[in-house]
Every structure is written in C-alpha cells, then in structure tokens.
Design brief:
12 helices; AEC family transporter; 309 residues; single chain; 80% helix
C-alpha cells in the first residue's frame, strides 16, 4: 500500500513541477495564470464538490461517528493554531496559509488511497470524509481569511455574507443537500459537473507550480516547519484520540486517520489568491507537504494497523 500512496503522490508533484516549468519558460502569457485561478475557484472546484458529495454511495457506513471524529479533530487543531498565532511572529496573510496547510487535505490522494485499502467500502468512507471535512475546513478558512487576510478584518455581517457567497461553501452545502434528500443530478448535468470537477485537479496543481518563488524561500522556514508539524503530527494525533473517545474502529477509523494525515490541497492556493492570503507561501507549503507526505504516509500506515481492528 505504501507503493500505491507514493504513486498517488507522484502525479501531484509532477504537475506542480510542470506548472513551475511552464511559468519559467513563459510558455503561456502571464495573464493566463490569474484567469486560470479564477476559473478553478468559481467553476471547477465547486463542480468537484457538488458532484463528489452528491453522488457518493454511503450504504453500511457509520456516517455520524466518522463525521464527528473528522469534524472534532479538525476543529480542535484549528483552535490550537489560533491559540499559537501570537507566538508564530507571522503577519495575517502568512498565518492564513499556515492555517490552511494545517487543516486542509488533498481529496485526490485520499480517495485513491482509501479505495486501494478497502475497495468499494473505501470509496464510500472517503465520500463521508469529504462530506464532513470539506464544508468544515472551508467555513473555518473563510472565517480566518475574514479576520486575518490582507483585506483587513470584516464586520460580522460581512463575514456571514462572505460565507453565504463563498462558492466552495455553497457547493459543499448543495452536494450534502443532494445526498441527504436522495435527489440525483439530472442526466445531462451530472457528466458536465464530473468533467469540470476532474479538470480542477490538474489545473490547480499547475497554478501551484507557477506560483512557486524560491527567491523568498528563506522567509518560509518557520511557517513551513509549523504547518508541516501540525499536518503530519498534531492532526493525526487528534484524530486517533477522537477515534478512541468515540469508539470508532475498523476501516472507518483507518480512513479518518488517513484523510487527516494527507498533504494540503491545491485548492488552498486558489483560496489564498482569491481571499487575500499569502499565495506564494501557500504554494511553497503545498509543494513541501506533497514531498513530505511520501515519508509521512507510510508511517501513518503503521498507525492504521493499530486502529483498523
């Protein structure tokens, strides 16, 4: 399974490298990248969330307990990051990138790994994980951007408006509503959303690579270290404790731990660019965590043996 995880990470790393190479070679006009980021944020990623959450099969899955473990561990780690912020010596925009790096996850790797571990059951478990974490992290991140982003602090009414209009939050809510009501996407719409969602992953990673700026890498040492320790250390620990507290075991517990130890998502960069975060730092965090995951995820597999019983 370690080999399968590494193979799932390899295309992510290669797409980031390709994006960096295309930007450095000026193969595309500079105006392309901001427009690609906008397309991903407002069209492609929402399509991915609506389709993925709305079409998932959840038969025989401990939905409520698994969701409680994932939401509880995510919120707990988010609160720790907020408590640590005064000690991190980071400006607000940089903190939003550290925050995203600590709590967001890569859907693509998670679904691939869960399917490899548990087959059809793993796909259903991954769907619950997405349904629980996607809206949670997006709401938390919008709140953090509203408070710490470069646009300045927003009034409560403005924060609620931003949440209500955020395309990722709206898409998550729509996908969950479809799942809860049992409604299906119309035959002509479902394949369109699926295709648009599939396009979000490679385009987002190309944009991440294009945004990498190693000339400022020296200033990233502290935030890169903090967010990686949180993502690959604190988050898995919080998840194991939540599993023990709520009695979640077996493949469901293993999937929860797997998802919470994944590298952060390429959508983090798109969100940083659109909502006033430190986008170059976010790109660096995504690239580093993708590389570190090659070593961290095999260690998580050892923990899986302890919880998947």
């Amino acid at each position: 399974m370690t080999g399968a995880l590494l193979l799932a990470l390899l295309p992510i790393a290669l797409l980031i490298a390709l994006g960096a190479a295309l930007r450095r070679a000026r193969f595309l006009a500079e105006s392309f990248w901001p427009q690609a980021e906008r397309l991903g944020y407002y069209v492609l990623l929402p399509s991915l969330f609506v389709h993925g959450l709305g079409t998932a099969r959840l038969d025989g899955v401990p939905v409520l307990t698994l969701a409680a473990v994932l939401v509880g561990s995510t919120v707990a780690v988010a609160l720790v990051l907020l408590a640590l912020r005064p000690r991190l010596a980071l400006d607000g925009a940089a903190f939003t990138s550290v925050f995203q790096g600590g709590i967001r996850f890569n859907n693509y790797v998670g679904v691939s790994a869960a399917a490899g571990l548990f087959g059809a059951q793993g796909i259903a478990l991954a769907a619950v994980a997405n349904a629980a974490i996607v809206p949670t992290v997006n709401i938390l991140c919008v709140l953090v951007f509203a408070w710490f982003g470069s646009g300045g602090r927003l009034a409560p009414a403005a924060i609620l408006r931003q949440l209500a209009l955020n395309p990722l939050v709206v898409a998550s809510a729509l996908g969950i509503a479809l799942q809860a009501t049992g409604l299906t996407l119309p035959p002509g719409i479902e394949p369109v959303l699926k295709a648009l969602g599939q396009a979000s992953l490679p385009l987002g990673l190309l944009c991440v690579g294009a945004a990498l700026d190693f000339g400022t890498a020296r200033t990233w040492i502290r935030p890169l270290a903090v967010t990686s320790v949180v993502k690959f250390g604190l988050m898995p620990l919080a998840t194991v404790l939540a599993c023990l507290a709520l009695g979640l075991r077996g493949p469901a517990a293993a999937t929860a731990l797997l998802f919470q130890a994944l590298p952060t998502a390429s959508s983090s960069y798109i969100m940083a660019r659109q909502l006033g975060g430190d986008a170059p730092l976010m790109a660096g965090i995504i690239a580093l965590q993708t590389v570190l995951a090659g070593a961290a995820l095999p260690l998580v597999l050892l923990l899986l043996e302890g919880v998947a019983v």
